[in-house]
Design brief:
three-stranded antiparallel β-sheet; Rossmann fold; Glutamyl-tRNA Synthetase, domain 3; alpha/beta; binds glutamic acid; 10 helices; 32% helix
């Protein structure tokens, strides 16, 4: 019998920067099944920190879309845009421990000073501003607002992913000092996600495998802040037939379009076949899939799914 403290809390963490597309529905469905099939709680966090991309009406739409699909959550949704003071307090804690430094590099300088592209396109920052003297910082700050980076050690962080198996990265070599606050003052995803997963007592993070390489950074930040580390399951991505990742620009794979052609149980049925939870297509509700969910059934490789 799981004890109260070992019970699962999963989460949805959509970015409300437009209508959800098939790929978002897929990760939300799998996150919900993983938590609910374990008898766990599910919480909702709207990752609307970027004022240039997110709008309140998109957040409302995301909630309606989750409900339409048959995915529910517990408690009030958390909106990151309302939590700036909380992130500022976490940021100050890291700054007080001497882990942060201001980075005055422009985008062009950053690119010029970084290591070659990694396979996933991430640039490893070369550490140009790490060694600036206090005097240099004062002078640079007169003409430019800095971003803030966290100094990572030469350390390998490993974990066992529930879907992908063992994964590790060396922070200095594979990732480099990363940004926790942008030069326009907006707190970065890496800071907010770690602070919120801890504050919302999340114990199980299920999300797309495009975020697998963020996880070592997040685990290391959790350690610096004295937070527990949740379990992680990175589900494969849904690809368009030409091998590209489905993205918001694939308008025909957007929920608004899909809703004109499919009922919610039909969409869930197609996603369930792609996830290995149904052998043949049939319309189903998420609840009807609960007894079929198992980590072992999920594919590891990206899947092609594009609904006509
Ligand atoms: N907000 C992110 C997205 O929609 C997900 C972040 C996460 O799950 O950690 O891609």
């Amino acid at each position: 019998m799981p004890t109260e403290s070992s019970a699962v809390t999963g989460r949805f963490a959509p970015s409300p920067s437009g209508r959800m597309h098939l790929g978002n529905l897929w990760s939300c469905l799998l996150a919900w099944l993983a938590a609910r099939s374990a008898g766990g709680r599910m919480v909702l966090r709207l990752e609307d920190l970027d004022p240039d991309r997110c709008r309140p009406e998109y957040s409302d739409q995301v909630m309606r879309d989750l409900e339409w699909l048959g995915l529910d959550w517990d408690g009030e949704p958390v909106r990151q845009s309302l939590r700036t003071e909380f992130y500022a307090s976490v940021f100050e804690k890291l700054r007080a421990s001497g882990l942060l430094y201001p980075c005055f590099c422009t985008r062009a300088e950053r690119l010029a000073a970084s290591a070659p592209h990694r396979s996933d396109g991430l640039q490893v920052y070369g550490g140009r501003c790490r060694t600036l003297s206090p005097e240099q910082r004062v002078i640079l700050a007169r003409s430019r607002k800095p971003a803030w980076r966290v100094m990572v050690p030469d350390r390998t962080v490993s974990f066992r992913d529930l879907v992908q198996g063992p994964y590790e990265e060396n922070l200095a070599r594979d990732c480099g000092d990363f940004i926790l606050r942008r030069s326009d003052g907006v707190f970065a995803y890496q800071l907010a996600v770690v602070a919120d997963d801890a504050a919302m007592a999340v114990t199980q993070v299920v999300r797309g495998s495009d975020l697998l390489s963020s996880t070592p950074r997040q685990i290391w930040l959790q350690e610096q802040l004295g937070y527990p580390t949740p379990a992680y399951g990175h589900v494969p991505l849904l690809l368009a037939p030409d091998g590209r990742r489905l993205a918001k620009r694939d308008r025909d794979q957007e929920l608004g379009q899909l809703q004109t052609r499919y009922t919610a149980p039909e969409l869930v049925g197609h996603l369930a076949v792609a996830a290995g939870l149904l052998d043949a297509f049939q319309p189903v509700t998420p609840s009807q899939l609960l007894s079929r969910f198992s980590w072992a059934r999920l594919p590891r490789e990206d899947r092609t799914l594009s609904l006509a």
